[in-house]
Amino acid sequence: MMRIDERISNILAGAVITDNRLQIRTKLDRQTYLQTNKVLEALGGKWSRSLQAHVFEGDPNEAVAAAIASGEVVDWKREFQFFETPAGLADRMVSQGLRGTSLLEPSAGHGAILEAVKRNPRSRDMALYACELNPLCRARLAERFPDVRLVGEDFLAYRNGSPDCVLMNPPFNGGRDIQHVRHAYEVLRPGGRLVAITSPGWTFRQDQTHRGFREWAQNLAARTEELPHGTFKTSGTMVRATLLVIDKT
């Protein structure tokens, strides 16, 4: 959580929001601007010099109002480990992973993988499902993909259904990627395919959790590929990542 002092709250309250753009009409000193910009970035805004405004993925009214009312803001990227899947990588995951008639994307974010699924003609008659914990992202998913069924918030609590394929970019921190991949395999239908982006830590770390996951993946004849450094640069992180493919026999 990030606390917002009253001065910044007043600046946000006086901002002008038009569609997905927020403009601050008050002239700010540099220190105050930096503090305000930090809050707006935590809310999901990105400064556009050409528009002279912070641009959001969707309508920021609700998020800004909540921040003003509570005096605090959640940094969604840190809190939910949300780093969007680049389009090229999402297309590769779809080309490798589409199976059967149903697909689930856990931790769907803004729907980058779902969008890639839609681009692939093989998905035309598939039933599409998604989970998403972040309430702002969940609202955006419902708006962008009315034909995708949102079946849960916390994917680790998801128990219903057995999709033919699972395509996922789970949160990495605290070994959550390992937990999510194991759970995805559990809910996957026999004969289905799981394609996941993970931290590369499980491929070499020697603690019990990572070693156990490595042995589990090897026993399942999992296929792995280390993704190029900087794959997620456009998503705001230089984190290293691995592509993991598992078939459930």
Describe this structure in words.
The chain has 249 residues and is α/β, with parallel strands linked by helices. It has two domains: 2-74, no CATH class; 87-247, Rossmann fold, CATH 3.40.50.150. The protein contains nine helices and 13 strands. The chain has helices at residues 6-13, 30-42, 61-70, 76-80, 87-97, 112-119, 135-144, 176-187, 208-219; strands at 2-3, 16-18, 21-23, 46-48, 53-55, 72-73, 102-105, 127-131, 149-152, 165-168, 193-198, 223-226, 242-247. The strands form three sheets. A seven-stranded mixed beta sheet has the order 9-8-7-10-11-13-12, with helices on both faces. The protein has a four-stranded antiparallel beta sheet with strand order 2-3-5-4, covered by helices on one side. Strands 1-6 form a two-stranded antiparallel sheet. A hairpin with a 2-residue loop joins strand 2 (16-18) and strand 3 (21-23). Helix 1 runs antiparallel to helix 3 (61-70) and helix 5 (87-97) packs across helix 6 (112-119). The chain is elongated and about 60 Å long. The chain starts with a strand and ends with a strand. The relative contact order is 0.11. The model has no long low-confidence stretch (mean pLDDT 88).
Percent in helix: 25-40%
Task: Give, in spatial order, the strands making up the sheet with the most strands.
Answer: 9-8-7-10-11-13-12
- CATH topology assignment of the largest domain: Rossmann fold
Q: What is the CATH class name of the largest domain?
A: Alpha Beta
User: Under the CATH scheme, which architecture of the largest domain would be assigned?
Assistant: 3-Layer(aba) Sandwich
Mass-distribution shape: elongated
Mean pLDDT: 88
Task: Count up the helices.
Answer: 9
Our Rg estimate from Cα atoms comes to: 20 Å
Instruction: Tally the beta strands.
Output: 13
By CATH's scheme, which homologous superfamily of the largest domain applies? Vaccinia Virus protein VP39
Poorly predicted tracts of residues:
none
Structural class: alpha/beta
